[in-house]
Structure formats: structure tokens, C-alpha cells
Amino acid sequence: MDNTNSPSPDQLTELQEKLFSESLKKQLPIISELASFGEVGLEVLRQFLEQESASPTPAVGEAYIELYQANSPKFNQFLADKFPQGVVPLKSERNIDYSPLQEALVKREFQEADRLTLLKRCELAGEQAMQRKWIYFTEVENFPSTDLKTMDQLWYVYSQGKFGFSVQRKLWLSLGKDFPKLWEKIAWKKGNLWTRYPNEFIWDLSAPVGHLPLSNQLRGVREFASLLSHPAWQE
């Protein structure tokens, strides 16, 4: 691993101390800076991940992604031993496998992750939803909270805290549950024009907060409203 951007010992110690003590907003750039230092910086991220992983945050997710993307035998082995299923527990009450969604998000393949999120929601809704490839709002009401929280946490933890159902819900509530304002805020609509799938959506972290995952508003607002009103977010 080429380590052309070596920090001084004092600089490394200072960054390490800040990483373990700062707020999430300040942790993310520190993680990026440490990763740029090569193996010495990644070793700090390994220690951070080992100590902080009990509560998966976007900083924990970002540290995991940096170690994963480094593709180093040493850190690959660490991740395989300590986090064989990633840093987010893949809990499901319907025996649904969320590992493909996690893999797509870790690789920052957000369009594929969005496709898989719809697929998993259809799986939750049942065989008829799987066949039609979309969901009735009444089916959303019966989704297990556990599964919704798993999908939401995967998006939130692996997107620097920018994406996920809970992020969208927070924006919706801040806008007085005004959906037209929400569409503009998360760039699903501009003026009277709906954002066209897939090319007009933004499939990376430059997207507005809450931009992903998508929900098909052309079928009406009720399915998305049911999702944002689900009891999962009250628990």
C-alpha cells in the first residue's frame, strides 16, 4: 500500500483523539483524512471500528467502507473475522436476506441499492407484490418494524447519514407533512415536473439529504405516507 501522504506522529495522535471524541459531522472528514494516509491511518480506523461498532453510526459505516475499499489482506481479514455481515445487524422477522442491499451500499452502488430496497419491500408485502413489482399502502401498514428499521439503518449508516426512510421522515415532519414541499426538498420534483427515472436522479453522495431511497409517487402518495407514518419510527 503506497503511503505517500504520511502524517507526523503528533498529527496522527491528534486525529485519533478527535475521531473518538468529536461529533458525527466532524468525524466524517477525519475518517477521510486518515484513510488518505494509507496503512497507518487505516489502522486507526480499524481501532475505531472495533471500539465503536456496538452502536453503528454513519462514522462507523464510513470507517468500515474505507477499510473495505482499501482491499488490503490485513484489513480484509479483520473485517471477515469481526464483521462478517457488516456493521449493521441484518435483522428480519420474515427471514429476508438483506446482505445484497448491504453489499451494494458499502460499494456505493446506490442505484442498485435502491432497486434492491424496492425488491425487499415487495418481498415483505408478499407474493402478489413480488409479481406486480409495487406495493399497496395497506401492505406497508403490515410491514414488521424490525425489517423497516434494518433497511433504514443500512441506508443511514452507509450514506454518511444522508439517506434513509427516517431521514425522509424527519424532513417531512419539519415541513409540516407537506408532500409537495418535500418533493422539492429531496429533488423528486422541480416545479411541475417529476424527476425522471433513472437518469435525472442522483446516484451518489452529492444528492440532497433524503434523496434516496426512492418511492414511486406517480402511483400516488399513500404508500409513501404509510411508510413515513409506520409505527417503527415511534418505537
TrEMBL record:
Gene3D superfamilies referenced in this protein's UniProt entry, alphabetically: 1.25.40.620, Gun4-like
Any one GO MF annotation of this record: tetrapyrrole binding
SUPFAM superfamilies: ARM repeat, GUN4-like
Domain GUN4 N-terminal ARM-like repeat: 8-84
Pfam family membership, one: GUN4_N
Classification via InterPro entries: ARM-type_fold, GUN4-like, GUN4-like_sf, GUN4_N
Residue ranges of every copy of the GUN4-like domain listed in the record: 91-231
Top-level taxon: Bacteria
Gene Ontology CC terms: outer membrane-bounded periplasmic space
Record PANTHER family: TETRAPYRROLE-BINDING PROTEIN, CHLOROPLASTIC (PTHR34800:SF1)
Name this polypeptide is given: GUN4 domain-containing protein
Organism: Euhalothece natronophila Z-M001
Phylogenetic lineage: Bacteria, Bacillati, Cyanobacteriota, Cyanophyceae, Oscillatoriophycideae
